[in-house]
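Exam review. A common question shows you a sequence with its structure tokens and asks you to describe the fold in words. Practice with the pair below. Do the first one on your own.
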Amino acid sequence: MHDVHAMVPLAHLSFGDGVTAWLSGGASNTAALRGIPYDPDWRKGFNVGAPPKPMVLPSGVKDVEHVF
């Protein structure tokens, strides 16, 4: 049985052209997270306008947001 009161850490990152960069954190319990239905089109509701372009990282690691 899962502990419904167990806390899950969440990272919040916002960045992009015309967006003020912002990083913070928080937490939510597992019961609240399990109650959110999965939306396969979540990117369409989350990103305003055109989808973001892939990030170019100095290390050369691929941006997994664009790996399907």
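Now try the second one, then compare your answer with the model answer below.
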Amino acid sequence: MSDKQEQDGSAESAEAAMKAAFARLGIVLDEENGGDAEMQVAALNGVADRLDAITAERDAAHAKLLDLDVITAELETVKAGAAETDRDLASHVVQLRDANIELLSLRRQVAAQKGQATRAKAEQAETAEKLAEAVARSGQTEPRVLPGARPVLSRIDRPTVMALVADADKVEIVPVADDREEIGLGVLVVSGGVDAFVLGRSGIGLSVDRWEVTGPGKVTGWALYLDGELAAYRDRSGGQLTIGNHQTFNLASDVLF
């Protein structure tokens, strides 16, 4: 085979390869004008445009991949945050459980304290009933009139009177209006002896919590009768007390000798 024949064969092979490449890109050369320069340029321009389109598609696909990477990273961040939230939630659940247990314990303590307070009040009321009893005096009863010279106690006298209270069979606290017993308010009959009294710096008072009376009536002083005899007297420290009609007043803390 001559050199010319070899060159022709190589040219045909190259042309066939170029046509195959153009065909893969969707470009078909005109067989009759395949050697025309303008047609070749046009064909090459078509190849360039196709390559540009392919490059653009490739870049777009690459951009999507980058977006997917970003989304994946964000998802991982969200997953990590969710895991942290789950841990926080579990911690809060434990704290809430412990708080509920503590609250239940406090409620039990409060209930126990209320029960103790109720029992204490009941015992106190029972003790008060044992110490003294308010006795109404009949309106037909002649009020006791106090003498002009009344036994006002000094500090030295008070312990002696307490001893007399302990020995007396009947102890009465009598509200006084001016110079006589205030019949409308009744008397307090003490059955608990000295346990119904408190000896303090200001004088002898009552340990009884309640002695409720209903008006009308007035109190200017207090008289202590032992076995029917006047043993002590003291003017009311706050002056005259007036109790209106149907008005209720607790005299227990008002008594002082």
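Model answer, second protein: Helices lie at 3-24, 37-131, 157-167. The first strand starts at residue 132 and ends at 135. Full marks require stating both points clearly.
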